[in-house]
Amino acid sequence: MKDQIKHIISLRTLLNYNIRKAFIAEMQLRIALVDWMNSVSSEKFKNILQKYFDYIHRNIDTLQTYLEKEKINPLDLSNIIMTAHIEDLYERQSYCYDNKIKDACLLAAVQEIIHYKISVYGTVAAYARALNMDEVTAGFREAEINEKKIDGSLCELAECDINVRAVAPVSLRSETEKLMVKNN
Prior knowledge:
The chain has 184 residues and is an all-alpha fold. Helix content is 82%, strand content 0%.
């Protein structure tokens, strides 16, 4: 097994470092996403998250194939950025009163994660391209494109459904109506 990265001394070692970080991020996200899929109230949202879950598995396979080929152990790193995204979502959701608002909160958080991952995959693809690693470049470009597809689906869902339902959830409206009747 090759020595683990102790210093980033070249574009290749920077690529390997970022790929290790991406692998850890995907593993963290895969675990969290199972919980999130079980918590959403929108069936459309659940279907998009399931598709995203499938993409995450492909991303993990792509990353793992590279790591195994290069004999690199990714498990000695953590990804504080993904950890922070996940923890922030759970904190935000703890303040949400209604499931429709929780869905809107989750959707926004997933998009934040996707934007981070678009950057990661775009960067590693650019590094791989600069190193003339065409097959590796293609795998990471595909991951970047899939992240953008899911982001587009989530944007459409947010604008046409999730955010519209979260504007005035039924449970909040009924409480407001009770207060108005009581005050009149």
